[in-house]
Amino acid sequence: MDNSQITSQGRMEGWLHLIRSNRIGLQYSRKRYFLLEDHFLKSFKSVPHSKNEDPVRSAIIDSCIRVTDNGRESIHRKVFFIFTLYNTSNHNDQLKLGASSPEEAAKWIHSLQEAALKGGPHQGVGDHIGCPNSPWESFRLSGSSRASHTKSIDWTLCSGTHMEQVTADVIAPSPWTIFGCQNGLRLFKEGKDRGSRGKWDDHPAIMAVGVVDGTSEAIFQTLMSLGASRSVWDFCFYRGCVVEHLDGHTDIIHKQLYSDWLPWGMKRRDLLLRRYWRREDDGTYVILYHSVFHKKCPRQKGSVRACLKSGGYVITPMNHGKKSVVKHMLAIDWKCWRSYLQPSSARSITIRMLGRVAALRELFRAKQGNYSSPEFLSGELTRNMRMHQTDGNMVQMPTEDGNSKENTSEEVDQVSSEHASLVGLNDAADEFFDVPEPSDYDDSENGWTSDFGPEMNSQDTRHPKISTAAGFVRKLHDLAVQKRGYVDLQGTAKEDNFSCCYGTTLQKDPTCTLPCSWTSTDPSTFLIRGKNYLQDRHKVKAKGTLMQMVAADWLKSDKREDDLGGRPGGIVQKYAEQGGPEFFFIINIQVPGSTTYSLALYYMMTTPVKDAPLLESFINGDDAYRNSRFKLIPYISEGSWIVKQSVGKKACLIGQALEINYFHGKNYLELGVDIGSSTVARGVVSLVLGYLNNLVIEMAFLIQANTEEELPEFLLGTCRLNHLDAAKAVLLKPSSRLSSSSQGPVRN
Q: Which residues belong to any copy of the START domain (predicted)?
């Protein structure tokens, strides 16, 4: 395994793999040694012997560069953890790299994000940073001038990706209640409300928590394995396979369970699951499951398909990474006749299954924490997927046709300014040179091997590493997900058509009892940076908001809807016509799919903007400054565990994970948060598909304070969305999309 490292001089270096595509779209890899130092990313064919050695290729990393996490891909039966660098002003200007492990990829992603956030090497005192108009200017191989902007990023104290302790920024009671301890594991049940204590649902969510003597990465590797090595510790598992690989973070898997651990006379069970995984900034791994239907894996004779409503693992490192806390949660319907199996017996089956955490603990204890599954996502799974045998019946399991295509490097090279961008690092002139690798058989013992056959080509899409907070808006709804061949067990509602008047399409309900409504929520629920945060890193309860939420829109359309504040007849333009002092701050969350949904939140202040200097700087700043400061704190106050786990309760800088389009009018600033700019959240979209009607979503928005003069932070506004319904979104007609008068807004 290649080990990248951050040296004492603050530079990042190590072996990576350039991921390229040939003329027919097939991917291949080339091993190179990369060095990130002083905003320069340099590529070598071997380890440089001195600082003066010239690189084969180099490029500048500045504030226009985004780094996206693509998850894992298999290329020629080798598993790589992929990340992509791209230019925000030209997405064709990109570089795709692969690391040998998720930890290696995480180190590089963090270092590259830090370099990008701090701007280019030409930034000095008084310099301003911003994305240049030229699509190639940000990836210069040599010096370039920077366009002036009204506000620069201040990185003198804190950057958006500095590692903070990953704790919740929301004050909320825990839904879990301990009810027992078994085999060294604490057992918890989830209560839906305060009155549920002592009562059990028919299919309750139950969680087992234990400590395992192993790194979070090694445990993650073991849990993801579906090969024969799983039978060493998983007493429930008979065999499994990957039915369809959706993207680097998501796949459809089929698990068959043994019957000897089930009650006498109970048929063998199997599970068809959508599996999603991600790695958090602190090294925590999250694996989430829920049941789906899939045309490639129908129900099979001789077994009963159980329904996993929600479940998964959370693996959190502790003791400097030497040990890990493992949480395993299941809410499962075993599909038993009530007359045959009492609810208490069904719960006992679930609790017995959760005992796998103890088996995992003993496995790592026996291996002294060094256990590494040699069959992690092994090639045998592809063979199992093609020919799935159960009880003497052969069920053909066709593989994915792999129609996903990529822009070849030759196509990108046709751009005239190729050597002014990172495309230069991807130059195909040395296509046939590669650093010799050790034998694949030597690596397989402790490496990451592939479960994807040659027909399972991953999609060439950008997958930004979205933290739990920023990612949740992408996870609300995407009806297009059903086109992939699988269908979630939760259904979707029918659509209706409505007329639109901007600012009135989502009703207000201060009582929080009406479905598909909004209201403000208590600011003291959220934690923000206090006056002395730079010294004590202490966050305090928010005491109020700068603005008041006055309206909301819940819209659907056949395209992305921008600049709602500038459209005539809406609440913003009505106030503009009156010429009053009111200023609007609009957050337009755009969720694309076969139908594009827009959730627009309108906040208004009546005092002069100049009375809030940080807000004034944000309004008048450039996009780079705004992207480095706009923060969201999410909270799912009511909803399934799997959705709560997906969303989290941690603040995040949205602009560092998603693209935001800014529209500045006479009396408003609108932020169009383009969820379509991130595809990593596709793995979680289906987890909340169908749950939307059952969710209560609370959010707070603020501008991050980085200096003593800016502290303490203040909330711009809060909101509470009560049981949104996709069917009640207002369908926009072409006539309602007309822009405002000739004094239209300016897109910054």
A: 176-349
